[in-house]
Design a protein that fits this description.
The structure holds two protein chains of two kinds. By secondary structure, chain A is mostly helical. Chain A is 74% helix and 1% strand. The chains are: A mainly alpha, B alpha+beta.
């Protein structure tokens, strides 16, 4: 039964992606109906399994199945081209955005990776622990949600510090966050 | 007029170009720094989804049961302890289930765990060690490094993956405009970028779920440690006590083996028809002995496990009911299942396996884009190209040879033997990068990996005949994967010959 429902969700994902692709291929101004229908099927496919398969099980089965169906549809539209030879002479310019070239020094590079790594981790933990301490609710819930916050905040800090050229600003924000987060947590204590 | 046009632009197209280029720089740097770790963790994770199926494959030929009576459990426990000569500190009894229909008794003595298979009467009939499953799951969980370091590194890899997903979305303003483009065979960079971006976007919910749950599972020890230091005067036990049952008071005086039969009766009376999934025993032959029962109910919930703990006197000293759990406990008890795809039956495992391979390609393809960009800019990195080809194709070889070893050597192939073979195969693959071209490396390694998988699939049913359809399915899958790898190697040979003729 579960297998049949999951396969139905895979098919729903593929059908929704097919409608969205039709909208994507349509001339400008056209395709709004397909776009709406595609998104509506995706939303409906995330909701109905909750009633049929279970309130937590259904949506997570749907997320995996819809993604797989959509990827299957996208891969069916693959176009093949002839291999291009690299042009002689200067390097080829690309239309795609290129990573920024910024002057750097050894200490800036070291500081950048320290911010992305241990300092970002400490700041993220400070936020997670401050959440656990200050937000009302059952202790287990506060700890688990606080724990889930840590990788999200650390990952965001990593993305930000590795991109931001104003490295001292990033340092100030992360160090400040760590001191403030741990400070207010220790002051209140866990209850 | 122009302002009207600007207003109609999609949201992501309005992101300033300098911001996109800065984020792309971070995305690229992070991806390169963690590419090999992300690749290895994702590849082994995609395989570890099928851990139960691989266990059945390794246990092919042993009795498959639907249930095991309390009397048989008691006999199996006594038999397993007798096999290791007594003095057992912990024991773990895995009851037969639809996923894993074997009755397994694992006993731990002097920090060494041995597992046995019992038949329907509780008689120990075979070794239940599954070294290949242990090898692949441990490679995923802690890279076979010392436990706390390895788990932390894998957790850090999960954070890096999550960060790459965030920066990946921010760095691609054309993500919707190119939503359905998969252009193969033209420019190498465009081909890899299309694959990377399509696999990244369309499977984004899966990528976020596995990286977030994986990061939290990996970082739990350090988060709890910091929490303990900051808020509980260094006592991490107080944090754990909120989630797991207390261990019974230690009393090392010798005692007869714990009699589990009355506990079974109590659990069955309390669990409302739930299936007993596992029994964990603390010091079963000491006065301080205790038994922890886990039950599971297939009721459409992720957090569907109850637990009951008894001391030697038969007193129930801990009860956990999923129905009464608070949100935090429900979330925590769902993380492992969500991470490994162990919910929703075999079909969800297959979907997780496919999406996991997509994530694996995402890691491999990111580096291929960087290498192609360097070539386009006439600044190629041939050493990196060789090294990366050896890295990504060396792992199927190393893992495939480990599987072949476990089939050919049987009980002689311990987990350490498999780790050694994996390590040697990885080093030899990387050594190929010293001289040969990336094409030759990839072709040779695909051939070896393909042959290893095909030999494994052919040797397994001959050496371990079984009527288990899951073992046959694993063999068939290995055969198909081996065939695909050989086909890929052949296609690469012909496309390389074409490129040599046309492009040079």
């Amino acid at each position: 039964m579960e297998a049949i429902l999951a396969l139905l969700l895979v098919a729903s994902g593929a059908f929704a992606a097919w409608l969205l692709r039709r909208a994507w291929r349509a001339k400008p101004g056209a395709g709004a109906g397909d776009k709406f229908a595609g998104w509506a099927i995706i939303v409906a496919s995330l909701v109905w399994p909750a009633f049929v398969m279970g309130p937590t099980l259904g949506p997570f089965v749907a997320l995996a199945a819809i993604s797989t169906g959509a990827l299957g549809l996208v891969s069916s539209g693959v176009t093949f081209r002839k291999a291009k030879a690299a042009r002689a002479g200067a390097g080829r310019d690309s239309l795609a955005p290129e990573p920024v070239e910024r002057p750097t020094t050894a200490w800036r590079t070291t500081l950048r990776w320290l911010l992305a790594g241990p300092i970002g981790m400490i700041a993220a933990m400070a936020i997670g622990i401050a959440y656990s301490v200050w937000v009302p609710g059952e202790p287990q819930t506060r700890l688990v949600i606080g724990g889930l916050t840590v990788p999200v905040v650390w990952g965001s800090a990593m993305a930000w510090t590795l991109a931001d050229s104003r490295i001292l600003r990033a340092t100030a924000v992360l160090v400040g966050t760590a001191i403030f987060g741990f400070g207010i947590s220790i002051l209140r204590g866990f209850a | 007029m122009s302002s009207t046009v600007t207003q109609r632009k999609p949201l992501l197209s309005r992101v300033p170009a300098d911001f996109v280029r800065a984020v792309l720089k971070g995305h690229s740097g992070l991806g390169l720094a963690f590419a090999a770790a992300i690749y290895l963790v994702c590849l082994t994770g995609s395989i570890a989804v099928f851990a139960h199926e691989f266990q059945r494959w390794e246990l092919a030929g042993t009795p498959r049961l639907e249930t095991l009576s309390p009397n048989a459990v008691q006999r199996a426990l006594a038999g397993a302890i007798e096999r290791v000569g007594g003095g057992v500190e912990h024991a773990y009894i895995t009851m037969p289930s639809p996923e894993l229909p074997q009755a397994l008794v694992a006993v731990e003595k002097d920090h060494v765990t041995r597992t046995f298979v019992a038949d329907a009467n509780g008689v120990i009939v075979a070794s239940g060690d599954t070294p290949w499953t242990e090898f692949i799951t441990r490679l995923h969980i802690n890279l076979h490094l010392p436990q706390s370091w390895g788990v932390f590194i894998v957790g850090l890899t999960g954070v890096a993956l999550l960060s790459s997903l965030i920066s990946g979305i921010l760095a691609h303003p054309r993500i919707f405009r190119d939503a359905f483009h998969v252009r193969m065979g033209g420019s190498r960079r465009l081909q890899e970028a299309d694959l990377h971006n399509r696999l990244g976007v369309w499977a984004m919910p899966f990528h976020v779920i596995v990286s977030l749950t994986g990061a939290l599972l990996g970082l739990t020890t350090i988060i709890v440690g910091v929490l303990g230091i900051a808020l509980f005067q260094g006592d991490v036990g107080k944090v754990y006590a909120l989630f797991i049952p207390q261990t019974p008071k230690d009393d090392p005086r010798p005692a007869p083996l714990l009699d589990l039969r009355p506990f079974f009766a109590q659990v069955e009376a309390r669990s409302g028809g739930a299936r007993i999934d596992m029994v964990m025993l603390e010091h079963p032959s000491e006065m301080g002995g205790a038994a922890l029962f886990y039950t599971e109910k297939d009721d459409g919930r992720l957090h569907n496990s109850d637990s009951y703990a008894f001391n030697r006197a038969g007193s129930l000293y801990h009860t956990y009911k999923a129905d009464d759990a608070v949100t935090g406990q429900k979330v925590l008890n769902s993380l492992g299942k969500l991470h490994f795809g162990w919910f929703g039956g075999g079909i969800v495992k297959i979907l997780y396996g496919l999406l996991g391979l997509a994530l694996t390609y995402l890691a491999a393809g990111g580096v291929l884009i960087w290498l192609a960009r360097r070539r386009d800019k006439r600044n190629p990195a041939p050493g990196f190209e060789r090294l990366w080809a050896a890295t990504i194709w060396g792992q199927p070889v190393a893992i495939g040879l480990a599987a072949l070893t476990v089939v050919l050597a049987g009980a002689a192939a311990s987990k350490m033997v498999l780790v050694t073979i994996w390590g040697i195969a990885t080093l030899v693959s990387l050594a190929l990068a010293i001289r040969t071209t990336p094409d030759m490396i990839a072709r040779a390694l695909k051939c070896v990996a393909g042959l290893a998988l095909i030999l494994t699939a052919l040797a397994h049913p001959l050496l371990r005949p079984s009527g288990d359809p899951v073992a046959w399915a694993v063999d068939a899958t290995l055969l198909v994967c081996g065939g695909l790898l050989l086909r890929l190697a052949k296609r690469q040979q012909s496309s390389s010959a074409y490129e040599d003729a046309v492009l040079t």
